Sequence to fold (460 residues):
Amino acid sequence: MVLGCTSSAGKSLLVTALVRWFYRQGVDVAPFKAQNMSNNARVVEGGEIGVAQWLQSLAAGQVPSLNMNPVLVKPEADTRSQVVVNGHVRHYLTEMPWLDRGESLWSAMSTAFDDLHSQHELIVIEGAGSPAEINLPDQVNNRTLLHADGVALLVVDIDRGGAFAHLYGTWSLVPESTRERLAGYVLNKFRGDPSLLEPGSTLLGDMTGLRLGGIVPMLHHGLPDEEGAIIRQPREGAEAVVGIVRYPYASNLDEFHLVPRSAALHWITTPSDVDRCDLVILPGSKHVAADMAWLKGRGLDEVIVRRAASGKTILGICGGAMMLGTHVADVHAVEGATMGLGLLPLHTDFDPTKITEPVTVRFSEMTTPFDALTGIVAEGYEIRNGRVVGDGCALAPLVWGRGPVLATTAHGLLENSGVLQALFGRRADSSLEATFDFLADVVDEHLDTELLRELVGLYQ
Fold:
């Protein structure tokens, strides 16, 4: 199990690297995370799991499974999150106070782990946050580790500073059942001279018994960020400029990870950010009404409407597509009703049943300025409660448009090289397999692989 001293310490990245490394050793390995919190998800087996476990399953050479992430919590407000169990929304758990959900969630977590464990030789478990949050009951880290009867590595972000304090503090505060299973630690995001770490590593080992499992340098890689909040440098010579509106509950931002290989990409948070864009994207939204209020509060609604009137391109995806319409109705109190931007003759009705399915989009006779998309077939996926109804502006199944404004309820289309070529004049093929192998090479070079083999019994 990979535990973190803090959130964003590098757990997801390290698990991805480890499952790929074990896969290359010929091990039948699969990833697992009991509970994830993210608005980035992928469709699996008719349900949804966090994008991190979806990526990890691909790195492990496995078909993604709902068992790999049995509980997904999707924030809808500062104090409210939608609860997804075994791939599907559980409304009664969403409404239940957080501390009362425990046993209902644990049943799904433990059953999913047991099923997954029975099917694979090795499970690499990703923790969540920190296992030393002593003010809260912890099922995702400590209870899962005990249930699995596993061994654990602690990963810490040394670039933040205070790494040895984080490691010692975590070791000292976790329950004894976890402490006795902690075998070592990994220093992540390291810059500089490793010799300067001594005598810190020796002293920490003397105090805790933890072994240094490796020092991972600050990496530049092509793996989509779990939260989709990183925009990497564009490929040299990219001419098109793309802006993504970064409202608070933007979702599925990981689907744009290939765009910087075709265009210069940046976030839009203020009206002035819009001016330099060749294409403005309204991405998915976990709470359309709240994000529309954010747009209006910042004056972005007026700027986007004026942009459309001047003939400059706008693309709305899922929740962003709903915002481009006239209004969103919500008689079932799923998220909340709101008026849209009125740029397309669409309206949305929220339904309690969420659509989670893979889709194929066949762009038929597209109109200018999106005519280059004509004839392209792209695979995508849908994750939405909103039912979008269009009036005379359908261009293809799941696609609506008029003039410079285009809307689709399908996620993942911008991961298609043909779509990127049509929109930006520059092809960008997926680099995931190369990235997985790069991360496995990092394990070979920077981690104690003898320790890894020892921990999982590869010598037996």
